[in-house]
Amino acid sequence: MNRAALIHGSKGLLMAAALMISAVLMCSCTEIGTEPDDFPEDAELTVITYPKTEPAETSVSDTDNYVYAQLSDEEKRWYDELKEAAESFSERVEYSGEIDGDTAKKIFLAVYDQEPQLFWLDSVFYPPRESSQLLKYRVGSQEADAMKGELRQVTDRLLSETEGLSDYEKLLYFHDYLVRNCTFSLDDENYTIYSALCRGYAQCEGYAFSFKYLCDLSGIDCITATGTNAGGETHAWNLVSLNGIWYNVDCTWDDPVLENGSPDFLRRYFMLVPDSDILGVTHFRDDTYFSYPRCYDGSRTYFARAGLYAKSASEGIEMLEEAAVQALSEGHKDAEVRFESESDYRSAMRTLFDFGDIKRLASAALERAGLDSSDSVSGMVRFSNDELHIIHITFG
User: Which range among 49-58, 224-233, 246-255 shows the weakest confidence by mean pLDDT?
Assistant: First the structure.
Protein backbone atom coordinates (compact mmCIF):
# COMPACT_ATOMS: atom_id res chain seq x y z
CA MET A 1 0.00 0.00 0.00
CA ASN A 2 1.41 3.37 -0.97
CA ARG A 3 0.30 5.99 1.52
CA ALA A 4 2.40 9.09 0.91
CA ALA A 5 5.39 9.80 3.19
CA LEU A 6 4.23 7.65 6.16
CA ILE A 7 1.98 5.46 7.53
CA HIS A 8 1.19 2.07 8.57
CA GLY A 9 -1.31 -0.46 7.98
CA SER A 10 -1.49 -3.79 6.40
CA LYS A 11 -2.21 -6.90 8.22
CA GLY A 12 0.27 -9.50 8.52
CA LEU A 13 -1.00 -13.03 7.95
CA LEU A 14 -2.74 -16.15 8.57
CA MET A 15 -0.62 -18.48 10.58
CA ALA A 16 -2.21 -21.76 10.18
CA ALA A 17 -3.03 -24.64 7.93
CA ALA A 18 -6.42 -26.26 7.90
CA LEU A 19 -7.30 -29.94 8.15
CA MET A 20 -10.48 -29.95 6.07
CA ILE A 21 -10.84 -26.41 4.76
CA SER A 22 -8.16 -24.08 3.53
CA ALA A 23 -7.33 -20.69 4.94
CA VAL A 24 -7.14 -17.68 2.64
CA LEU A 25 -4.13 -15.41 2.99
CA MET A 26 -4.90 -11.74 3.13
CA CYS A 27 -3.81 -9.52 0.31
CA SER A 28 -0.21 -8.35 0.66
CA CYS A 29 0.33 -10.57 3.65
CA THR A 30 2.82 -13.29 4.35
CA GLU A 31 2.14 -16.76 5.62
CA ILE A 32 4.22 -17.34 8.73
CA GLY A 33 3.10 -20.74 9.84
CA THR A 34 2.09 -23.91 8.03
CA GLU A 35 1.02 -27.39 8.84
CA PRO A 36 4.22 -29.30 9.70
CA ASP A 37 5.56 -32.16 7.65
CA ASP A 38 6.29 -35.60 9.09
CA PHE A 39 9.25 -35.49 11.46
CA PRO A 40 11.82 -38.28 11.77
CA GLU A 41 12.33 -39.65 15.25
CA ASP A 42 15.94 -38.46 15.36
CA ALA A 43 15.16 -34.91 14.22
CA GLU A 44 17.11 -32.25 16.07
CA LEU A 45 14.63 -30.39 18.26
CA THR A 46 15.18 -27.30 20.36
CA VAL A 47 13.56 -26.33 23.62
CA ILE A 48 12.10 -22.86 23.88
CA THR A 49 12.63 -21.13 27.22
CA TYR A 50 11.35 -17.72 28.19
CA PRO A 51 13.74 -15.12 29.58
CA LYS A 52 12.88 -14.12 33.12
CA THR A 53 15.39 -11.31 33.52
CA GLU A 54 14.20 -8.00 34.81
CA PRO A 55 13.73 -5.22 32.23
CA ALA A 56 16.48 -2.73 31.63
CA GLU A 57 16.01 0.50 33.52
CA THR A 58 14.52 3.32 31.50
CA SER A 59 14.06 7.00 32.14
CA VAL A 60 10.63 6.84 30.55
CA SER A 61 7.68 6.62 32.89
CA ASP A 62 5.46 3.54 32.48
CA THR A 63 2.26 5.41 31.69
CA ASP A 64 -0.15 5.67 28.81
CA ASN A 65 1.99 8.68 27.74
CA TYR A 66 4.99 6.45 27.16
CA VAL A 67 5.67 7.95 23.73
CA TYR A 68 4.86 11.51 24.80
CA ALA A 69 7.29 11.20 27.72
CA GLN A 70 10.18 10.69 25.27
CA LEU A 71 9.67 14.11 23.68
CA SER A 72 11.63 17.17 24.69
CA ASP A 73 9.71 20.05 26.31
CA GLU A 74 9.61 21.85 22.97
CA GLU A 75 8.42 18.73 21.16
CA LYS A 76 5.71 18.19 23.77
CA ARG A 77 4.49 21.72 23.12
CA TRP A 78 4.36 21.00 19.37
CA TYR A 79 2.57 17.70 20.04
CA ASP A 80 -0.08 19.55 22.04
CA GLU A 81 -0.40 22.18 19.32
CA LEU A 82 -0.89 19.59 16.60
CA LYS A 83 -3.41 17.68 18.69
CA GLU A 84 -5.37 20.86 19.43
CA ALA A 85 -5.35 21.86 15.75
CA ALA A 86 -6.65 18.44 14.72
CA GLU A 87 -9.35 18.52 17.38
CA SER A 88 -10.63 21.81 15.99
CA PHE A 89 -10.28 20.78 12.30
CA SER A 90 -7.86 23.63 11.63
CA GLU A 91 -6.56 23.82 8.08
CA ARG A 92 -3.05 24.28 9.42
CA VAL A 93 -1.20 23.80 12.66
CA GLU A 94 0.78 26.87 13.59
CA TYR A 95 3.72 25.77 15.72
CA SER A 96 5.23 28.05 18.33
CA GLY A 97 8.59 28.22 16.63
CA GLU A 98 10.19 27.00 13.44
CA ILE A 99 10.16 23.22 13.10
CA ASP A 100 12.21 21.12 10.68
CA GLY A 101 10.63 18.44 8.50
CA ASP A 102 12.02 15.42 10.34
CA THR A 103 10.89 16.68 13.74
CA ALA A 104 7.48 17.56 12.33
CA LYS A 105 7.15 14.03 10.98
CA LYS A 106 8.13 12.63 14.38
CA ILE A 107 5.44 14.72 16.08
CA PHE A 108 2.85 13.84 13.47
CA LEU A 109 3.53 10.12 13.85
CA ALA A 110 3.27 10.36 17.62
CA VAL A 111 -0.10 12.11 17.48
CA TYR A 112 -1.49 9.95 14.71
CA ASP A 113 -0.50 6.66 16.37
CA GLN A 114 -1.20 7.49 20.01
CA GLU A 115 -4.37 9.62 19.73
CA PRO A 116 -6.85 7.19 18.10
CA GLN A 117 -9.83 9.38 19.02
CA LEU A 118 -8.71 11.76 16.23
CA PHE A 119 -10.05 9.33 13.64
CA TRP A 120 -10.82 12.12 11.19
CA LEU A 121 -7.16 13.15 10.84
CA ASP A 122 -5.79 11.97 7.50
CA SER A 123 -2.61 9.91 7.61
CA VAL A 124 -0.79 11.83 4.87
CA PHE A 125 2.08 13.91 6.22
CA TYR A 126 2.69 17.33 4.68
CA PRO A 127 6.15 18.82 5.35
CA PRO A 128 5.96 22.13 7.22
CA ARG A 129 6.93 25.53 5.95
CA GLU A 130 8.82 27.21 8.74
CA SER A 131 6.29 27.01 11.61
CA SER A 132 3.16 26.14 9.61
CA GLN A 133 1.99 22.70 8.52
CA LEU A 134 -0.97 21.72 6.36
CA LEU A 135 -3.47 19.22 7.78
CA LYS A 136 -6.01 17.12 5.89
CA TYR A 137 -9.07 15.34 7.24
CA ARG A 138 -10.99 12.26 6.19
CA VAL A 139 -14.33 13.87 7.05
CA GLY A 140 -15.58 17.31 8.05
CA SER A 141 -16.43 18.39 11.59
CA GLN A 142 -20.21 17.89 11.27
CA GLU A 143 -19.86 14.38 9.88
CA ALA A 144 -17.26 13.61 12.54
CA ASP A 145 -19.69 14.72 15.28
CA ALA A 146 -22.29 12.26 14.00
CA MET A 147 -19.67 9.51 13.85
CA LYS A 148 -18.55 10.31 17.41
CA GLY A 149 -22.14 9.77 18.51
CA GLU A 150 -22.15 6.31 16.95
CA LEU A 151 -18.83 5.52 18.58
CA ARG A 152 -20.13 6.55 22.01
CA GLN A 153 -23.03 4.13 21.69
CA VAL A 154 -20.62 1.26 21.02
CA THR A 155 -18.03 2.19 23.62
CA ASP A 156 -20.61 2.96 26.32
CA ARG A 157 -22.02 -0.54 25.84
CA LEU A 158 -18.59 -2.17 25.93
CA LEU A 159 -17.54 -0.25 29.03
CA SER A 160 -20.81 -1.19 30.71
CA GLU A 161 -20.27 -4.86 29.88
CA THR A 162 -16.76 -4.77 31.35
CA GLU A 163 -17.65 -2.85 34.50
CA GLY A 164 -16.33 -4.64 37.55
CA LEU A 165 -13.92 -6.85 35.61
CA SER A 166 -10.20 -6.96 36.32
CA ASP A 167 -7.83 -5.28 33.88
CA TYR A 168 -6.82 -8.69 32.54
CA GLU A 169 -10.46 -9.63 31.96
CA LYS A 170 -11.09 -6.31 30.23
CA LEU A 171 -8.12 -6.81 27.90
CA LEU A 172 -9.36 -10.28 27.03
CA TYR A 173 -12.86 -8.92 26.41
CA PHE A 174 -11.63 -6.11 24.13
CA HIS A 175 -9.38 -8.51 22.20
CA ASP A 176 -12.16 -11.05 21.72
CA TYR A 177 -14.71 -8.41 20.79
CA LEU A 178 -12.52 -7.07 17.99
CA VAL A 179 -11.67 -10.55 16.70
CA ARG A 180 -15.32 -11.60 16.62
CA ASN A 181 -16.91 -8.35 15.48
CA CYS A 182 -14.40 -6.92 13.04
CA THR A 183 -13.30 -8.28 9.67
CA PHE A 184 -9.94 -7.58 8.10
CA SER A 185 -10.32 -5.46 4.96
CA LEU A 186 -7.82 -3.60 2.81
CA ASP A 187 -10.32 -0.89 1.89
CA ASP A 188 -8.69 2.53 2.02
CA GLU A 189 -11.29 3.77 4.53
CA ASN A 190 -10.61 1.08 7.10
CA TYR A 191 -7.82 2.65 9.14
CA THR A 192 -9.75 4.08 12.07
CA ILE A 193 -11.56 3.26 15.29
CA TYR A 194 -14.80 4.25 13.58
CA SER A 195 -14.33 1.75 10.77
CA ALA A 196 -13.45 -1.03 13.21
CA LEU A 197 -16.00 -0.39 15.96
CA CYS A 198 -18.93 0.99 13.96
CA ARG A 199 -18.58 -0.53 10.49
CA GLY A 200 -16.93 -3.82 11.49
CA TYR A 201 -14.07 -3.60 8.98
CA ALA A 202 -10.46 -2.60 9.52
CA GLN A 203 -6.86 -2.88 8.50
CA CYS A 204 -4.25 -3.43 11.21
CA GLU A 205 -4.33 0.26 12.16
CA GLY A 206 -8.04 0.03 12.86
CA TYR A 207 -7.58 -2.99 15.11
CA ALA A 208 -4.61 -1.51 16.98
CA PHE A 209 -6.15 1.95 17.36
CA SER A 210 -9.43 0.46 18.59
CA PHE A 211 -7.73 -1.74 21.16
CA LYS A 212 -5.77 1.26 22.44
CA TYR A 213 -8.89 3.44 22.45
CA LEU A 214 -10.82 0.94 24.57
CA CYS A 215 -7.84 0.64 26.92
CA ASP A 216 -7.61 4.43 27.16
CA LEU A 217 -11.29 4.66 28.10
CA SER A 218 -10.73 1.97 30.74
CA GLY A 219 -7.65 3.57 32.25
CA ILE A 220 -5.31 0.79 31.09
CA ASP A 221 -1.87 1.86 29.85
CA CYS A 222 -1.54 0.99 26.16
CA ILE A 223 0.43 2.27 23.17
CA THR A 224 0.41 1.57 19.45
CA ALA A 225 3.58 0.00 18.06
CA THR A 226 4.39 0.20 14.36
CA GLY A 227 6.83 -1.53 12.07
CA THR A 228 6.73 -4.35 9.55
CA ASN A 229 6.06 -8.04 9.33
CA ALA A 230 8.60 -10.61 8.12
CA GLY A 231 7.69 -9.77 4.53
CA GLY A 232 8.53 -6.10 4.99
CA GLU A 233 4.89 -4.94 4.87
CA THR A 234 3.81 -2.21 7.26
CA HIS A 235 2.04 -3.36 10.39
CA ALA A 236 0.64 -1.99 13.65
CA TRP A 237 -0.09 -3.73 16.95
CA ASN A 238 -0.21 -2.85 20.64
CA LEU A 239 1.87 -2.88 23.80
CA VAL A 240 -0.17 -2.95 26.99
CA SER A 241 0.82 -2.68 30.64
CA LEU A 242 -0.74 -5.16 33.05
CA ASN A 243 0.24 -4.92 36.71
CA GLY A 244 3.19 -2.77 35.68
CA ILE A 245 4.54 -5.29 33.14
CA TRP A 246 4.33 -4.71 29.39
CA TYR A 247 3.10 -7.26 26.85
CA ASN A 248 2.49 -7.37 23.10
CA VAL A 249 -1.07 -7.78 21.80
CA ASP A 250 -1.94 -8.22 18.12
CA CYS A 251 -5.69 -8.40 17.51
CA THR A 252 -5.20 -8.26 13.75
CA TRP A 253 -3.17 -11.43 13.55
CA ASP A 254 -5.62 -13.20 15.85
CA ASP A 255 -8.38 -12.51 13.30
CA PRO A 256 -7.44 -14.42 10.14
CA VAL A 257 -9.50 -14.51 6.95
CA LEU A 258 -10.77 -18.08 6.50
CA GLU A 259 -12.69 -19.84 3.80
CA ASN A 260 -16.07 -20.80 5.25
CA GLY A 261 -14.93 -19.29 8.52
CA SER A 262 -17.39 -18.75 11.36
CA PRO A 263 -17.91 -15.25 12.81
CA ASP A 264 -17.43 -16.94 16.17
CA PHE A 265 -13.90 -18.08 15.29
CA LEU A 266 -11.50 -17.05 18.04
CA ARG A 267 -7.83 -17.53 18.74
CA ARG A 268 -5.49 -15.83 21.20
CA TYR A 269 -2.05 -16.62 19.80
CA PHE A 270 -0.86 -13.00 20.16
CA MET A 271 -2.59 -12.10 23.41
CA LEU A 272 -0.09 -10.88 26.02
CA VAL A 273 3.11 -12.24 24.47
CA PRO A 274 6.71 -11.26 25.28
CA ASP A 275 9.14 -9.77 22.78
CA SER A 276 10.98 -13.08 22.59
CA ASP A 277 7.95 -14.65 20.87
CA ILE A 278 7.67 -12.19 18.01
CA LEU A 279 10.37 -9.51 17.72
CA GLY A 280 12.76 -10.27 14.91
CA VAL A 281 10.64 -13.27 13.97
CA THR A 282 7.24 -12.07 12.78
CA HIS A 283 7.15 -8.46 14.04
CA PHE A 284 9.84 -5.86 13.40
CA ARG A 285 9.35 -2.57 15.25
CA ASP A 286 10.29 0.78 13.82
CA ASP A 287 12.51 2.48 16.41
CA THR A 288 13.38 5.46 14.20
CA TYR A 289 11.82 8.06 16.48
CA PHE A 290 10.74 6.28 19.65
CA SER A 291 11.81 3.44 21.90
CA TYR A 292 9.28 0.96 23.25
CA PRO A 293 9.02 -0.66 26.68
CA ARG A 294 10.53 -4.11 26.90
CA CYS A 295 8.04 -6.95 27.03
CA TYR A 296 10.21 -9.43 28.89
CA ASP A 297 7.79 -11.62 30.86
CA GLY A 298 6.94 -14.93 29.20
CA SER A 299 5.59 -16.56 32.34
CA ARG A 300 2.19 -14.83 32.40
CA THR A 301 1.01 -14.90 28.82
CA TYR A 302 -2.62 -15.62 28.03
CA PHE A 303 -1.90 -19.35 27.71
CA ALA A 304 -0.14 -19.46 31.07
CA ARG A 305 -2.90 -17.51 32.81
CA ALA A 306 -5.59 -19.70 31.25
CA GLY A 307 -3.91 -22.96 32.22
CA LEU A 308 -3.23 -23.82 28.59
CA TYR A 309 0.57 -23.85 28.67
CA ALA A 310 1.75 -27.45 28.55
CA LYS A 311 5.10 -28.82 29.72
CA SER A 312 4.62 -32.23 28.11
CA ALA A 313 2.82 -33.69 25.11
CA SER A 314 0.36 -35.68 27.22
CA GLU A 315 -0.41 -32.69 29.44
CA GLY A 316 -1.08 -30.57 26.37
CA ILE A 317 -3.49 -33.10 24.90
CA GLU A 318 -5.38 -33.23 28.22
CA MET A 319 -5.49 -29.40 28.30
CA LEU A 320 -6.79 -29.30 24.73
CA GLU A 321 -9.62 -31.66 25.62
CA GLU A 322 -10.56 -29.58 28.67
CA ALA A 323 -10.49 -26.41 26.58
CA ALA A 324 -12.73 -28.07 23.99
CA VAL A 325 -15.23 -29.15 26.66
CA GLN A 326 -15.38 -25.64 28.07
CA ALA A 327 -15.78 -24.02 24.65
CA LEU A 328 -18.48 -26.42 23.52
CA SER A 329 -20.35 -26.06 26.81
CA GLU A 330 -20.40 -22.29 26.30
CA GLY A 331 -21.64 -22.56 22.72
CA HIS A 332 -18.27 -21.91 21.06
CA LYS A 333 -16.19 -24.07 18.74
CA ASP A 334 -12.51 -23.26 19.27
CA ALA A 335 -9.92 -24.81 21.58
CA GLU A 336 -6.18 -24.26 21.67
CA VAL A 337 -3.11 -25.14 23.70
CA ARG A 338 0.50 -24.01 23.69
CA PHE A 339 3.53 -26.18 24.42
CA GLU A 340 6.67 -25.06 26.21
CA SER A 341 8.99 -27.12 24.02
CA GLU A 342 9.08 -27.79 20.32
CA SER A 343 9.63 -31.51 20.88
CA ASP A 344 6.46 -31.85 22.97
CA TYR A 345 4.52 -29.81 20.42
CA ARG A 346 5.61 -32.06 17.58
CA SER A 347 4.98 -35.19 19.63
CA ALA A 348 1.43 -34.03 20.38
CA MET A 349 0.87 -33.23 16.70
CA ARG A 350 1.87 -36.78 15.76
CA THR A 351 -0.29 -38.35 18.46
CA LEU A 352 -3.36 -36.32 17.58
CA PHE A 353 -3.22 -36.12 13.82
CA ASP A 354 -0.88 -38.85 12.53
CA PHE A 355 -2.00 -41.54 14.96
CA GLY A 356 -5.65 -40.41 15.06
CA ASP A 357 -6.09 -39.55 18.73
CA ILE A 358 -7.99 -36.42 17.67
CA LYS A 359 -11.05 -38.62 17.06
CA ARG A 360 -11.00 -39.86 20.66
CA LEU A 361 -10.45 -36.34 21.97
CA ALA A 362 -13.25 -34.85 19.89
CA SER A 363 -15.74 -37.58 20.82
CA ALA A 364 -14.91 -37.28 24.50
CA ALA A 365 -15.21 -33.49 24.47
CA LEU A 366 -18.57 -33.59 22.68
CA GLU A 367 -19.98 -36.22 25.04
CA ARG A 368 -18.80 -34.34 28.13
CA ALA A 369 -20.41 -31.17 26.77
CA GLY A 370 -23.68 -33.04 26.25
CA LEU A 371 -23.51 -32.94 22.44
CA ASP A 372 -23.81 -35.55 19.71
CA SER A 373 -20.46 -37.28 19.21
CA SER A 374 -21.48 -39.72 16.49
CA ASP A 375 -19.53 -37.85 13.81
CA SER A 376 -16.91 -36.17 15.95
CA VAL A 377 -14.47 -34.93 13.31
CA SER A 378 -16.93 -34.00 10.59
CA GLY A 379 -16.10 -30.49 9.46
CA MET A 380 -13.38 -30.12 12.07
CA VAL A 381 -10.51 -27.80 11.20
CA ARG A 382 -7.01 -28.04 12.55
CA PHE A 383 -4.64 -25.09 12.83
CA SER A 384 -1.05 -25.07 14.01
CA ASN A 385 1.61 -22.48 14.70
CA ASP A 386 5.16 -23.77 14.52
CA GLU A 387 6.80 -20.61 15.88
CA LEU A 388 4.67 -20.46 19.03
CA HIS A 389 4.01 -24.24 19.35
CA ILE A 390 0.24 -23.88 19.35
CA ILE A 391 -2.33 -26.51 18.38
CA HIS A 392 -5.81 -25.15 17.65
CA ILE A 393 -8.93 -27.09 16.70
CA THR A 394 -12.28 -25.76 15.51
CA PHE A 395 -15.34 -27.98 15.63
CA GLY A 396 -17.55 -28.03 12.54
Answer: 49-58
Residue 357 located in a structural domain = yes
H or E element in which residue 82 lies: helix 73-87
What is the average pLDDT across 77-103?
97
Last residue of a domain, one of 78, 103, 138: 138
b/e map of 218-251 (b: 16 or more CB within 10 Å)? bebbbbbbbbbbbeebbbbbbbbbbeebbbbbbb
Q: Among residues 350, 329, 348, which one has the least CA distance to residue 337? A: 348
pTM, entire model:
0.84
Per the rule left: phi > 0, alpha: psi between -120 and 50, beta: everything else, 331 is left
Domain contains 292: no
Amino acid identity for residue 287 in this structure:
D
Residue type for position 26: M
**Measured between alpha carbons, how far is 25 from 15 in angstroms, rounded to an integer?**
9
Number of structural domains found in the chain? 2
What is the rounded CA–CA span in Å between residue 148 and residue 171? 23
What residues are paired with 284 via a beta bridge?
228
Structural domain harbouring 122: 68-138
pLDDT at 277 over 50: yes
- Cα distances from 259 to residues 20, 66, 181, in angstroms, run 11, 39, 17
- 107, 73: one domain: yes
The phi, psi pair for 386, rounded to 5°, reads: -70, -35
Chain-centre distance for alpha carbon 347: 29
Residue 318: CB atoms within 10 A of its CB come to 14
